[in-house]
Amino acid sequence: MNSKRRTFLKTAGGASSIAIAAAAGLIKPTEVLAVEWNKAAFEAKGVPDALKAVGAAGAADSKDILIKAPDIAENGAVVPIEVTSKIAGTSAIMLMVEKNPSPLTANFDLAHGAEGYVSTRIKMGQTSNVRAVVKAGGRSYTAIKEVKVTIGGCGG
Amino acid sequence: MAEPMKIRATMEGDAANIKVLMNHVMETGQRKDAKTGQVVPAHFIQTVIAQMNGKPVLEAQWSQAVSKNPFLGFKVKGAKAGDKVNVSWVDNHGDKNSADAVVA
Hints:
The complex is a heterodimer. By secondary structure, chain A is α+β, with helices and mostly antiparallel strands. Chain A is built from three helices and nine strands; from the N terminus they run αααβββββββββ. Chain A has helices spanning 2-23, 39-43, 47-53, and strands spanning 60-61, 65-68, 72-73, 79-85, 90-97, 104-110, 114-122, 128-136, 139-149. In chain A, strands 1, 3, 5, 6, 8 and 9 form a six-stranded mixed sheet that branches. Chain A has a three-stranded antiparallel sheet with strand order 2-4-7, with no helix packed on it. In chain A, a hairpin with a 2-residue loop joins β8 (128-136) and β9. The longest helix of chain A is centred in the first third of the chain and has 22 residues, at 2-23. Chain A starts with a helix and ends in a 7-residue tail after the last strand. By secondary structure, chain B is an all-beta fold. Chain B contains no helices and seven strands. Chain B has a four-stranded antiparallel sheet with strand order 4-3-6-7, with no helix packed on it. In chain B, strands 1-2-5 form a three-stranded antiparallel sheet, with no helix packed on it. Chain B is elongated. Chain B starts with 5 loop residues before the first strand and ends with a strand. Classes of the chains: A alpha+beta, B mainly beta. At the A-B interface, β4, β6 and β7 of A face β3, β4, β5 and β6 of B.
């Protein structure tokens, strides 16, 4: 059975398989690096579950994490967030919006000289704490900042 | 196919400051179409990889709560002018896009 399938693939392959490989990025070796999307963590419904799913349960509060975000966001669809971690050896920064349906918004893994800094824009359904979680040296740290939202960003 | 991305990399002190703008709808899967009343299916960027001179410096996983046309800013220490930066993303439909820049 398996050998038949192989033959089929060979005969059906030909020129088209090269095009498919190119489209899938297989020919460029740099694009083979794929990040696994942590489905369980992104679908977690509450902050404790989300923290557990990213392996950061029991993260310690830290004053070395700075969250730069507006105190009041006029438009919840676009809330600029900047996180700076002064913790040495920061290897990952995560963003959670506590009152969004799924809190975990983004996870940034840093390596090869990337500084403990990320900047992005996120959606917030309502006024909520924005939580940053930092992983450094096998330990987790966290900090929060409240952002008041006057118009929600989740449509409706 | 996906629209082009904007990317800029500049030196700030001893670190390169890289800013990327991606074109994407970032649909949450919770919004209803105003005309049909149907829920618009989720369509969002799930993973982003940034590389400097071929080495991964940042690997991001995103949820649908990242804003439409996402912005990403990050800094890489020890970079120098002329270093090559590549940023690529893949969404939940398997669409992908990438952009290159040289640190200035």
